[in-house]
Amino acid sequence: MSGDPAKILRQHGVQVTAQRLAVLRAVSGRPHCTADDVADDVRAEIGAISRQAVYDALGILAEKGIIRRIQPAGSPALYEDRVGDNHHHLICRTCGKTVDVDCAVGDTPCLTAADASGYQIDEAEVIYWGTCPECLAANRGAAGD
Questions:
Q1: Are 78 and 72 in contact (CB under 8 A)?
Q2: How many CA atoms lie within 13 A of 134 on its CB side?
Q3: How far is residue 85 CA from its own chain's centroid?
Q4: Which residue, among 45, 48, 47, has the nearest Cα to 27 in the 3D structure?
Q5: Domains of the chain from N-terminus onward
Q6: Model confidence, pTM
Q7: For the segment 23-82, what is each residue's pLDDT rounded down to a tens digit?
Q8: Ordered DSSP codes for 36-55
């Protein structure tokens, strides 16, 4: 998040509250975090906050396009503040680490629908699954034992 969080909320027509500011700062400080991660960070910053208040703040921030909600299959929703571009994600099957991946360049057949069914497509969401370098190294080390 670049800029003043309160100003960002106002620019998107969102009422500025201490809880929303803390939620936005938490998402900005920890990309690809879960709602529970956000709640922990917000509680550390401002004290008590209900789980429902965190979900409500995440919902309005995502609805207004201030943050992005990512829903990997079989995993809890993740939140990030990188919005406004069509990037994708790479997730480690072992540890769950998630990183941003810029859109593919060159021949990208999976990003063009075979039949758009009349839709005007403006975004494609791709999640790559694999094993991160740290988990690969740990697995190699464990195999050598």
A1: yes
A2: 8
A3: 13
A4: 45
A5: 5-70 (1.10.10.10), 85-143 (3.30.1490.190)
A6: 0.83
A7: 999 999 999 999 999 999 999 999 999 999 999 999 999 999 999 999 998 889 999 999
A8: HHHHHHHHHHHS---HHHHH
